[in-house]
Specification:
Elements: H1 19-70, E1 84-85, E2 91-92, E3 115-118, E4 124-130, E5 133-137
Antiparallel strand pairs: 1-2, 3-4, 4-5
Length: 138
């Protein structure tokens, strides 16, 4: 029964970690870090792109609601922030609560604001550029 228990070693005879073992552990940690750090950076870029996509979809929905109500495109995204009265004297809105800023950071960085471009044919586009990506929603 006592063979299961480790025996106490004499003082000064404890097993020590060798330099080679420490170097192996350091190399393994370096390899793991070299794999994990780029994955983390890539995840941040993907999150910024997904945030911009969600913002653009929300803004496009606001523009569509405004257009359905007013029968014309808004002149700017800020027109979506306040109520609007159409030619039938019906009031609706605000169509969005705020115009969100583009995501912070990125390489290259995102622009200062989303770009809204209405056309005379009744179509529009909202564009964001950053992290080496351009996102446009019709």
């Amino acid at each position: 029964m006592t063979s299961c228990w480790s025996k106490k070693s004499a003082p000064g005879t404890q097993r020590r970690v060798t330099l080679a073992e420490l170097m192996i552990v350091a190399a393994i940690l370096g390899i793991l870090a070299s794999i994990a750090i780029p994955l983390h950076a890539n995840a941040q870029a993907r999150a910024r792109i997904e945030q911009a996509q969600a913002d653009l979809q929300m803004l496009a929905l606001g523009v569509r609601k405004y257009t359905d109500h007013m029968d014309t495109l808004p002149a700017a995204l800020t027109a979506l922030l306040r109520p609007a009265v159409n030619d039938r004297n019906q009031s609706a809105g605000p169509f969005i609560t705020t115009v969100p800023p583009p995501p912070y950071g990125g390489t290259p960085a995102w622009g200062a604001a989303y770009t809204y471009t209405p056309s005379s044919t009744g179509t529009f586009s909202i564009t964001a550029t950053g992290d080496g990506t351009t996102i446009t929603v019709p």
